[in-house]
Amino acid sequence: MPEDHWSSARYEAAARFVTDLAGPVLALLDPKPGERILDLGCGDGPIAKGLLDLGCTVIGVDSSPDMVAAALARGVDARVMDGHALDFDAEFDAVFSNAALHWMVRPEAVIGGVARALRPGGRFVAEQGGHGNVAAIRVALVAALSEAGVETDLSDIWSFPSVDEQRARLEAAGFVVEEVAIHPRPTPLPTAMEAWLETLAAPALARLPEAERPHVRARAAALAAPALRDSAGRWTADYARLRFRARLA
Ligand code: BEZ
Question: How much is the pTM?
Answer without folding.
Answer: 0.92
